[in-house]
Amino acid sequence: MIDPGRAFGTGAHATTRLCLELLVGLPRGSLLDVGCGSGVVSIAAAKLGFRPVLAVDLDPQAVEATARNAAANGVDVEARLADALVDPLPATDAAVVNVALDVDEPVAGRLRCDRLVTSGYLASEEPELPGYRRDTRREADGWAADLHVRTQ
Question: I want to staple 14 with a disulfide (CB 3.0 to 4.6 A). Which of 38, 57, 140, 145 is the partner?
Fold first, then answer.
């Protein structure tokens, strides 16, 4: 049950679905959702057994929507206002950055996680993430999502 309010994300977009498909196969642990929008990915991660789940966004309305939607779905998600390009980010087992390629790449360089799911870009685009190797790619409707594994 998701009410996006004024935040981005109902869960219907291909990039969201692709990210969720990649999350299903990951070992459970802590998760950071960067650019959480309405909280779809964070809520699904919590329902899949990821703990703790931290959701960050630079839009206060997104943080509010994520907190509201997490409560409505009976899951524990900490939603915080943060700019992932400059604010401190915690170390986590996994992270999801489903924003856009020009954001995904610089944010990835700031993350401290073993597994990283990125999306928000076209299937014709390939993210370049130093310190990670692409493990798996999924595509749908001209969009792509990638699972990256830390190499260093």
Answer: 140
Find tokens 């692709």 and name the residue: 18
Domain extent at residue 139: 14-150
DSSP string, 18-44: HHHHHHHTSPPS-EEEES-TTSHHHHH
Which mean pLDDT values do the consecutive 10-residue runs of the chain (152 residues) have? Answer: 45 84 97 95 97 97 95 97 97 96 94 97 95 96 97 85
- Number of domains observed in the structure of the chain: 1
Pick the closest to residue 56 from 74, 41, 72 (CA basis).
41
pTM of the predicted model as reported, rounded to 2 decimal places: 0.90
Residue 9 within a domain: no
CA distance 111 to 62: 21
| Residue for token pair 């809520």 | 43
* CA–CA dist 121, 27 (Å, integer): 25
Spacing of C-alpha 38 from chain mean position: 11
Separation of alpha carbons 70 and 75, rounded Å: 5
Residue 82 belongs to some domain of the structure: yes
CATH number, residue 84? 3.40.50.150
